[in-house]
Each structure stands twice: as C-alpha cells, then as structure tokens.
Specification:
The protein is of the alpha+beta class. Strand 1 and strand 2 form a beta hairpin.
C-alpha cells in the first residue's frame, strides 16, 4: 500500500541561466521553510526527498562518511 500522498505538482521552469521549481505555500509550510532557506535533496529508493537543511545533520553525516571510508573493509566484512 502506498503511504505517500501528493500534495502539489510543480513545473520545471527557467530561472535566469538555470532551471528551477517554484514550491507552493502549502509545501513550504509543510517543510517549515521560506525564502532564503536551504533544502537537502536526498535520493531514496522511491525517488527524491526534499527536507529542510540542518547544519547539525550535515556535520553528523560528514563524520559518518569519514568513519565509513576509514573502516570500509571492516564494514564489508560485517555486511556478509
């Protein structure tokens, strides 16, 4: 059963020399973000996930990536 509910459809448009999307007020409210805030774009098995940017989360993920890189062989062995 699909737990996802579509709350908006957006179009890709030209923004200067780039492309972008305009998010409706309802989407911004659900994300608790506004003009000037940053969003994280995360690839998931179901597609792309937009979440508010969190400096603390980014710091934790950077530390996790370093640990995973340094301990790649041990993590591979544990995964078997």
């Amino acid at each position: 059963m699909n737990k996802h509910v579509t709350i908006a459809t957006v179009k890709v448009t030209t923004v200067g020399n780039s492309v972008g999307v305009t998010l409706p007020k309802e989407v911004l409210a659900k994300l608790r973000v506004g003009k000037g805030d940053s969003l994280c774009v995360t690839e998931t098995p179901e597609g792309v996930l937009l979440t508010p940017y969190s400096a603390k989360f980014a710091e934790v993920m950077e530390a996790a990536e370093i640990i995973m890189r340094e301990n790649r062989d041990a993590l591979k062995a544990l995964a078997l």
